[in-house]
Amino acid sequence: MDRDDQTDQAAPQDVVSIIRSHVDFSPSKPAEPYGDWRSLPELPTSWELNPDWDNDLEKIRMNVPQNDIRYPYSDKNGYLEIHYRLSREEGITSLRNGVFVQGYLMTRLGPVCRLQFSTQRAGRKIVWTRTRRLTPGTIVAISTAADNFETICKPAVIADRSIRDGLDKKPPTIQILWSDISDAVIDPNQELVMIEARRGFFESVRHTLVGLQHVAQIKTPFDKYLVQGSQADENPQYVLDNPKMDISGLLHHLPDDSIERERLLGPYRNYDILSGIPANIGPHTSLDNSQLQAVHRILTKELAMVQGPPGTGKTFTSVQALRSLVNTLTAGMRKDTEEVIIVAAETNHAVDQILTHLLKLDYNVLRLGGRSKDEEIKKYNMFNLRRRAPILAHNKDFQNGEAARKKVIRDFGDMIESVFPADELLDPEVLHEYGIITNEQLGSLTNTSWDYQPPSGRPFGIMSEWLHESMVDLSQRRYEDPAFDDEEIMDDDEIDTSDFQLDLDDPAVDDEGDSFVLKGTWIDISRKWGGANPQHYNEESLLLKREMNRRDLFDVPEKYRGAMYECWQRQLLEKHHQGLCNLLANYTRKYKSLKVNGWKRDVACIKSMGIHIIGCTTTGLSKYRGLLAALKAKTILVEEAAQSREANIAAALFPSLQQLILVGDHQQLDPYTDVPGLAGSYHNITVSMFERLVAYLRLPFTMLNGQRRMITAIREVLNPFYPSLGDHPIVRDPLYRPAIPGMPVSHYLFQHTWPESMDTDLLSRFNAQEAEMVVRFAIYLMRNGTQAHQITILTFYRGQKKKIHKTIAKLLRPLYAQAKIGVQTVDSYQGEENDIILLSLVRSNKPNMPGVAGFVEDMSRGVVSISRARRGLYIFGNITNLETASPESRFMWGNVRQVFERQGRYFPGQSGLPIRCKNHGAINHIMDADTLAGNYGGCWQVCEGHFEECGHPCDRLCHPMSHSQLVCKKPCERKLHCGHRCSNDCGDECICEKLCPSFMGRMPQPEVDQMQGHRPLGNGSSHKQRRTNGMRDTVQRNKWVAYNSAQDDARARLQRQTSPRLIDTALPVSVHETLREEFRSVNISPMGGRVVADGVITNGNNIPPGTNNPAIRGKPDFGSTTAHRNRESAAPTPKASGDTDERSTGTPTPNARQIPRGRRSPIVTPRTAVRAFPPRYDQTPTHSNLLDLSHLDGVLDDTRLERNRSSPEDLYDVSPPRERNAHTSHQAAFNLPPSRVSSSYDNVSDASSEIARTVADWEVASDNEERDGVQLPIVTVKETKKCFDDDDDGDDKDLIIF
């Protein structure tokens, strides 16, 4: 194509004519099955959705052509047809009962039909707020229930998805746009069947199809590249016309002196770009040499392609080039200073990202499309631009079009009213007017007296008298939507509600966009009354035909009258159907006229606001093609070009376009298709335009080769795929890429043989042991100082993502309640990065079975997964399995394994994950999640440090944090102001061992009696606070009067369970995290307080492999922890997320509680709502005196409740006194056999005996509670004298503990 031809095509064209050519576009000739592709309509036809498979199979196959990407195309028509037919096939190839029309909403987007439907065939309850069903733009196929797609198939598109007053109704409703308005269904009693396309999104295809048909009608400067594969590397016409450009924006390092700065920038403000980038620009720019070459290619080439490997700054390079283009426009160096540059990308996130960079440079941008998730970018959409722009009055054409639209609405409503009277029956005069009944039949009705009085609630009139008992209320016949108990299982991907909202950029939505729902004039189509037809007579029934010919309708037997009435109703609708469809078609034309006028106004808004950059997705390039073409853009830049399908970009070749810029990397993610069969080597729909031109046709391009993301060792993992990729100096600077705390290596390949599983709900793979290992490792990194936001867990499968989320909730949330670790699939993480990446490969077949890889073998996904980390990359998987799965998988993961092995970061067989103690320098290798669970600082040595505040030794296992962040758990040695000693831990709040009034600030006893259910609040300041604040005054100490014990207990429990500081420094644990039990003897003081002795901790048996430290092996720890805060549990406290029973995995978490196997007897726990108050000495014990057992909170929260009958250090709960020989009463109270009761308890200590005698004559009650699956029955002790068994057998088995 020569330059003269291009100039002719670029001649000025009226804005309105350009817009109208798009809005009013229709194929040049009628569509024929399997005919010319240019004649096909925008939406699918019935013969495409429901073809004749028996006779047309060969034609159907020919309709899906081969796409040979190895060679150029024979001609432009063939090139466009191949991509058109493949895109159309993808949009329509993957397409529920009781569907009825309710009416039409006459909107400014066209006539919208509202359907009521049933979810019966779904088989489960659909939660509409958590499903992608019936997304706007999804294609549906509709048929009558009687035909059931045998011969009738009516395509339509979901127009609106409103939950409120729509999908939340019973039954739900949805609104559609008919593909062909002549297919419109009007009869509200016609039962329909609707099929939804669960895969695919036709909205993203339909506009591309029309765009390709537009391109078929014009010549473009890019035909020689796209069709013929030309190696020419020409300049765009606008550059040849004027090669001067402002490239001063490429200079970033400028002197402070303004004169010197201007002297440096001056030569570059009007620079001849065809002479190349000057060499002396290097010291003043942040761009490396490859980026400067890429910028020059973007500024000077007609078809400019730039490949950007991971971390090389593709977006930054694009922004710098755009900066020069925009500066050139705003400096007035182009003829048309109102010219716009279009920036597109495959994803909304990428569009928002590049526009954010441009906004920081103070450029005027416009975001087309309503799917942006960035709240700042949303301010720059078309809807808001119209509001900011100077008021542009609607012209006369718009006002005339709006008046014509409203007249059509009135005419349509009047016709519907005549066919379907709202609350009345059909008018005999109307039936006669349309020739449905004869003159004689009309006379038989009109000559009858009107003395008939219908039953209450029924309509008046002669037709009501004629029908009489044959009249039925149709509104009562509609079904109710089925109620299912089970919810439909959907994927775990986050649902973005913006996907279901109205597109605010449509020019017809201007006045109603705030509501995000369609608005318009509602025309209801419903029937209140009808005729009974129990025999199902129809027009073909001979008996009914005979009765319908009677001259006097009152001679018709009553059993036929209902059927006759229904026949008249159908005939009347048939008479009006074509007229109704014509009105709907006329309304569509009026809507299009409004759209033309709206886009014309938008063009004026864009120019008046000085917009120079318009951003949209590659789908938006076709959707808003009319508007963009009217703006006469000369340049389009496509980010993520290698992830966009070729058809989407080819459809955006406007007549005015002179330059196409493609920036991407074909070695990363490919375009996505919903039809896997089209992705193979025959159709190649997932081969992008970028990849075809660069990798197959070898057209000129520039490759960026300096990465600024990964440290060198991680970058080397990419070298088998990018041999020329090098490093920017910044990645070798420890100041910007510090080492990973707690790790001796920055990257590692952890090999295991744990088998994978299948998530049957998601039909996706997961590996439970691998998920736990990854989460445990993330916890370890956080304990050693890494922030949660610096860690991202990547996986290839949604099933594994779901499993990791559950594991995080189970293991990490109880420790770090506010921590948010990112968990993403690889496909959703292209373009992202983080300091540390934990990669879960999932796939691992059983031993001696063939290797399996699935799409983990895909090199483009693999490259993305290993190139996201800045400082740390840790891969977990069965690499041996992947290497033997397939040649593709061997190439991908075999190369990765070789690099890791060469670097000493992988060892054949099962390679333990190395961790390093920053205190001792010891390196240990972790083989599984259980081993990692008990490690805080990298080793298992006992800390030899001391607390600065109190001087106590630490005695914990090695920990990475300083002692100032920990709480000393030694017994408090301070003497309080009351003269007594503290009975609490050193680092906790002081509590007087005598609970004396002087310390507690207790009120007189009568006031205590009025406060049953409340306990005194002790002096609650910590030792550190008391040193600075002094003792509290009397008012402060008396705050216990208004004290809510239940709320404080819940707060304290939650704080203890969620605080990383406390959880991380729990009792010393073994490598398997089996927490040792803590036991304390407790006495009741004369004042009713608790006296808690020093804690005793049992010896743990799980010693880490290879540990020889005598401080750990076989050495019990005495005196570690004493009583917790004085608080009560007035009501059962909700179970914290960390309180889970993990007997199945053998890896208990901190705070885990456990009932010993085989026990069913009630036990005292912090949740049994047992409270105590010391009785007044002049009172008889009452039912309100309840025993305080809240001191057991700490024991049961921080240890596992497992009793060992052979251990003298067993935990003994406070036990109520019982009757002598109460063995039988125990059986009755607990409804348990004697063996179950007696076998549960052994060895009663003197401490418990003393407690029980002290509280004798009290009444004790425990509420029902289900604890870890064990139902604890109500136990009421009416009269108690003695606590222990008196049968002299010495076993004390009759003691009841609860």
Describe the structure.
The protein has 1298 residues and is of the alpha/beta class. 31% of the residues lie in helices and 12% in strands. Strands 6-3-4-5-2-1-13 form a 7-stranded antiparallel sheet. A 7-stranded parallel sheet has the order 11-15-10-16-17-9-18. Strands 21-27-26-24-25 form a 5-stranded parallel sheet, with helices on one face. Strand 16 (635-639), helix 24 and strand 17 form a beta-alpha-beta unit. The radius of gyration is 40 Å and the shape is globular. The N and C termini lie far apart (93 Å). The model is unreliable at 1-12, 491-500, 1002-1046, 1059-1082, 1086-1090 and 1095-1298 (pLDDT under 50). One of its GO terms (cellular component) is nuclear RNA-directed RNA polymerase complex. This is RNA helicase. Residues 1096-1241 are annotated as: Disordered. InterPro entries: DNA2/NAM7-like, DNA2/NAM7-like_C, DNA2/NAM7_AAA_11, P-loop_NTPase, SF1_C_Upf1, ZNFX1. Keywords: ATP-binding, Helicase, Hydrolase, Nucleotide-binding.
Globally, the shape reads: globular
- Poorly predicted runs are 1-12, 491-500, 1002-1046, 1059-1082, 1086-1090, 1095-1298
Distance between the termini: 93 Å
The helix content, as a percent range, equals 25-40%
**How many strands, which pairing sense, and closed or not: the largest β-sheet?**
7 strands, antiparallel
Helix count equals: 42
Radius of gyration, Cα only, in angstroms?
40 Å
Arithmetic mean pLDDT: 75
Number of strands: 37
- Could you say which structural class the secondary elements and strand pairing correspond to? alpha/beta
Strand content: 5-15%
The strands making up the biggest β-sheet line up spatially as: 6-3-4-5-2-1-13
